[in-house]
Amino acid sequence: MVTMNRLSVKEPDDDSPLLPEAVEASATTIVFHRQKLITTTDPGHFFLSRRDNLAFSLVLLFGCYSAILIPAYFPLDREASVSDDYPQPKDLVLLNQSALLLLGPCQRHWCLNHLKPLACSTGLLDIPVFVQQDMLKPWDLPPPLGLQGSEQHLALALASLPQPGLPPSLSREGSCRRCVVVGNGGILHGSHLGSHIDQYDIIIRLNNAPVPGFKRDAGSRTTIRLMYPEGAPHSPNEYQKTTMVALVVFKSLDLDWLTSVITKTPLSFWSKLWFWREVVDDIPLRPENYRILHPEIIHKTGQVLQTYTLKQGNMIPTLGASAVVMALQLCDQVSLAGFGYDMQHPQTRLHYYETLRMGAMKAQVVHDISAEKLFLRDLVVAGAVTDLTGAL
Q1: What is the pLDDT of residue 246?
Q2: 207 in the Ramachandran plot: left (φ > 0), alpha (ψ -120 to 50) or beta?
Q3: How high is the pLDDT of residue 86?
Q4: Domains of the chain: which residue ranges?
Q5: b/e string for 235-267 if b means 16 or more Cβ within 10 A?
Q6: Quick one: pLDDT at residue 74?
Q7: Is 232 within 8 Å of 280 (Cβ atoms)?
Q8: Cys-Cys crosslink for 271: which of 118, 121, 219, 267, Cβ 3.0 to 4.6 Å?
Q9: Where exactly are the transmembrane stretches of this chain (predicted)?
Q10: Could you tell me the fold of the domain covering 78-387?
Q11: Within 13 Å of residue 191, how many CA atoms lie on the same side as its CB?
């Protein structure tokens, strides 16, 4: 135990002053204690000055804005963030079957010969693919099943197209050709079919389905991108290896948009208000690389789907089903990749390029997805088309 004795200072008996050494020591001690008190209680040592506080706030604010804006202007590679779940192909059997299909020779008129057993085959043959000048005639139905009421808009759009009809490179009179229609379904995610898809003669894609960042599963080339204005990709990179854009007309204003994009004449502010989402003003393609999908493709596809559904009235098919019917007009052999929505499993991936789940499809009421799946399944069973991803 340590005992501290009480320290006392005895005043001198006489009135003599302290020695100079004592006075100096006493003064030094007092100053020391005052400095210690200031050091431990002065709030200025705990808080920044106004100038330092302002500088620190500006640095913090700049850091927050950078964290938000940099990813927006310089997005990360979506393949790294979305597709790395499958470092290996998720179905080697399907991948091997796809490889074997490409190793074999192209079979002339394969689709036509295998469509004959189907009851709906007559409605799927000899449909014009693109609208051209000599097809100007009265239309019985409005868009998208016809062009009734859009004749003037159509005339202006066709006038801006140097080659509105079917180009010689897509004519069936040429050599045997293989088509692949690349759907947007999540079943394509992790398939590793990209290198196979790029080997097809004609590669058809839908709306804004991305290519850069997803080459491993979806390939890199595009022969025809089938789309409407609101579905057109905004990034110029999506058009780098694109041969043709084919417009699907859902309203007269869609034709005005096409004319605007080709002629580089901006649409009016009032016209843009009628699109249900922002549309792109410019596409880095030449005028000869545009076409207008013939509405008979949409109409005939809808008529075929009517036999698979209980709904009454004109059916509006998805772009996917319409693209398959278009491919049947262009190619001897047709393959599908990324088709087949699995509505029984709402937590599965809806699209190959995002994490949105299948349950989101229940909110849409325009298309009959179940009828389309039955139709496409019949095409697969008949051997008219090949399902590369196995969801049909």
Answers
A1: 98
A2: left
A3: 63
A4: 78-387
A5: eeebbeebbbbbbbbbbbbbbbbbbbbbeeeeb
A6: 41
A7: yes
A8: 267
A9: 54-74
A10: sialyltransferase cstii, chain A (3.90.1480)
A11: 35
Q: Is 74 helix (H, G, I), strand (E, B) or coil?
A: coil
Q: Do 258 and 248 contact (CB within 8 A), yes or no?
A: no
What is the reported pLDDT for 88?
83
Comparing CA positions, the residue from 322, 243, 252, 327 lying closest to residue 283 is: 243
Q: Which helix (H) or strand (E) holds 386?
A: strand 385-387
Cβ atoms of residues 290 and 258 within 8 Å: yes
Tokens representing 235 are: 């990034």
Please say whether the dihedral angle defined by the alpha carbons of residues 79, 84, 85 and 86, taken in this order, is positive or negative: positive
Contact 201, 181 (CB under 8 A): no
- pTM of the full structure: 0.77
Give every CB contact of residue 141 below 8 A, 6+ residues apart in sequence.
Answer: 148, 295, 299, 314
**What pLDDT is stored for residue 133 in this prediction?**
84
Spans of the chain, pLDDT less than 70: 1-86, 136, 341-347, 357-365
